[in-house]
Amino acid sequence: MEQVIVNIGYDNQYPDFIHLWVKGELRIGSSEPLEQDLEQIYPVCKGKKVLFDLTQVTFVSSTGWSLLLVACKRTVENGGRFLLTGMNTEVRNAFELLEFQEFMENYPSPAEAFQDALNEELFQNRGKFPPQRIGYF
Questions:
Q1: Is 87 helix (H, G, I), strand (E, B) or coil?
Q2: What's this model's pTM, rounded to 2 decimal places?
Q3: Given this model, what pLDDT does residue 136 score?
Q4: How far apart are CA 72 and CA 103, in angstroms?
Q5: What crossing angle do the helices spanning 32-41 and 62-77 adopt, rounded to 10°?
Q6: Would you say residue 22 lies in a domain?
Q7: What CATH number should be reported for the domain holding residue 51?
Q8: Tell me, what's the pLDDT at 13?
Q9: Which residues of the chain, if any, have pLDDT below 50?
Q10: Number of domains in the chain
Q11: What DSSP string describes 96-135?
Q12: Which domain holds residue 79?
């Protein structure tokens, strides 16, 4: 079974962001690299926006969803935002079936997630008025 590959990005221009690119299948026995990387990120994610790019993830098992749920919970507990993006159709269908959209922010593309996270006023007022979309890059 092929291990999951994780790349973590930090950008000096956007110090409030941590970007994780995940590749492979998130399932038992393959997601250990992501779990190890997350343990290193939790102490530094306080108040940060953690963007999980799943564009290259082909499958997420219950173990993988559990890992993402814990990541979301710990990020939010540390005062950060957990942003999930780039799910393919199969992964998105499972995500919606499990009704995770009720408490996990998710976006079709990394650019949309990034742009929305930059607009803190929109985030802080979410639910108070219909969201207004701004141009995406």
A1: coil
A2: 0.81
A3: 36
A4: 9
A5: 0
A6: yes
A7: 3.30.750.24
A8: 85
A9: 127-137
A10: 1
A11: HHTTGGGTSEEESSHHHHHHHHH-HHHHHTBTTBPPPP--
A12: 5-124
